[in-house]
Design a protein that fits this description.
By secondary structure, the protein is mainly alpha-helical. Helices cover 40% and strands 3% of the residues.
Length: 253
Amino acid sequence: MIYCKPGAQHHFSQSRLDANGQTNAAHLTAWLPHGRAHNTILLTHHKTPLPPPRLSSPNAPYGPQAHPRRDCRRHAHIAGPDTGLRPASLLPSSQHERLLLELLPFKDTTKFHDWLDSNFVRGPWNEFNADFLSRAIADAAAAGVVGPTGLPAGPSAVPEPEKVRTAQAAREALNARKVKFVVYRPDKSAWTAEDHHVRFIVTLVADNMLQNLWYESEWKKKGLDIAKAAYEVLIFLKATMVYADPNPPSYSA
């Protein structure tokens, strides 16, 4: 779930816009339509004032709810039964960022953060957060999971699927154009946590290949490495976002 300011006007983001903020039909494909709208869950107050959000690039028309702030704070995790999921990574965000700069075709952190704030990352991320992560965090909070300082459950309370297996599934889904993962609005009613991670990787890679971040020839040669890099992007986003308290304090006069 994502913080929003009280009384703010709420917007829905699209995954592909041109420089003028208009849908670019030239980028649409038959197997992976774009222009997805992403719902967010809104909370209107918190115990302490919120700092202003990071400024995004001028061509990224997002409201406050589309830009939850990145932070290094972590929470407790629960391992759960052996379902192929593993506890969320505790790799510090600064170390993780250096790893991502090695895995992705960016030479400096400024371009990397501009990319994270772009439509081509926010679209897949907003979908993942709205359809899976925010609900999983709320479920963990309802189960009484708290951090070592008594804070409510955060993203690290949600176990992550195994990296290599998830990346392989995403590579196969993209190569085979599997309808389950590439249609505009897939039926996610029976999806597993791994399915949601695969969907993020597929949409992130497909969207950014259209922007020439990766080329078709690169994907054919090292598709698994690219899929694993996309997985790390998702883990980084999960680790460096500040989430709303699913059970905010109540106030009385």
